[in-house]
Write a structure and sequence with these properties.
single chain; 327 residues; alpha/beta; seven-stranded mixed β-sheet; 7 strands
């Protein structure tokens, strides 16, 4: 979930809900973020996407070498640890390490693992991607929260969801992850998919097709976000090619569906509302005045036409996973 994931209301890389939920233009290491508020929202959003993680994990089991158990898994950009714990269940012989730069989210991962009886196999590691994966720990091997720092070591499976597009040089980031694979290990990247949908085309407010226009605004926001990243590289976002460039073999891709029909649960409505609110905050100035007025009504919890009360809110999304194997 980073989270992250985590892994948007309008687009696979919307400002609100990448991998888990991310603030516009930042990863979840933001010093300004109120994690007491955002942590539960991230976790709830990732739980709504549990079907994706479960389907992806089942697929990844078919890609790991037969007869060779998966002993160690890295979840890089783990967010609140929802996917981390699902990976621990999918690979019952493995230690699963949640790797994230944000101590508050690593704390949530530990608490979640303990509540699920997985704390014996789920561990945490504080690191930034990509350079932090190999950084020496300095004077202390752990941070103030007791999360190990320094090199993360190698693994039989590395999972990273909606995290790498927050790194300026994505190709280099993929190569950095690939260096931590054991022989025959699998690197799986959840990047891209289809724009999320949560309302009908014509919602009885404003002009029909609001979400298509939000998609266009999101693309503009995403381009600005990517351009502002340190070391940003303009490159074709061909994730299978990134994997082969990193020396991995047999790249393949598969997409997995989240399909939560109307009427959406309260948790689902909160996820959608949070995403829309953060999108409006990020690029509301790019929207036409009538679309911004429609968004304002949708976000009003007391408006019968708002997301909190209307009966036709759903959640439909597709998330793509790209995977390849070390030699």
């Amino acid at each position: 979930m980073t989270h992250d994931e985590a892994h948007g209301t309008a687009h696979p890389h919307t400002p609100a809900h990448d991998h888990g939920t991310h603030a516009p233009g930042h990863r979840h290491g933001d010093a300004d973020m109120d994690w007491e508020v955002m942590g539960p929202l991230l976790e709830s959003g990732a739980e709504l996407h549990s079907a994706v993680f479960e389907q992806a994990a089942a697929w990844l089991r078919t890609l790991t070498p037969q007869g060779t158990p998966v002993r160690r898994v890295l979840d890089v950009g783990s967010g609140p640890g929802v996917a981390t714990c699902l990976l621990a269940r999918a690979f019952p012989e493995a230690e699963v390490v949640a790797v994230d730069p944000t101590p508050a989210l690593l704390d949530r991962t530990r608490a979640r693992a303990a509540a699920l009886g997985l704390d014996g196999r789920v561990t945490t590691h504080r690191a930034e991607l990509p350079d932090g994966l190999d950084t020496l720990p300095g004077d202390a091997p752990t941070d103030l929260g007791g999360h190990p720092t320094g090199p993360v070591g190698d693994a039989d499976l590395i999972w990273s969801s909606r995290t790498l597009h927050h790194v300026g040089d994505q190709r280099r980031a993929v190569a950095a992850l690939a260096r931590h694979l054991r022989p025959g290990g699998v690197l799986a990247l959840s990047e891209g998919g289809l724009p999320q949908r949560f309302l009908p085309r014509d919602i009885g407010l404003g002009r029909p097709g609001l979400q298509a226009r939000l998609d266009a605004a999101t693309e503009e926001w995403f381009a600005r976000m990517r351009a502002s990243l340190p070391g940003a590289e303009n490159t074709v976002e061909d994730w299978p090619a990134f994997l082969t460039d990193a020396g991995l073999t047999a790249p393949r891709s598969r997409s997995f569906l989240v399909d939560l029909p109307a009427p959406l649960s309260a948790e689902g409505r909160a996820y959608v509302s949070t995403g829309l609110a953060r999108a409006a905050e990020a690029f509301g100035d790019d929207l036409a005045p009538d679309d911004l007025a429609t968004v304002t009504r949708l976000l009003d919890p007391h408006d019968p036409a708002g997301l909190a009360r209307r009966p036709d809110v759903f959640l439909l999304a597709a998330q793509t996973v790209h995977a390849a194997r070390a030699r």
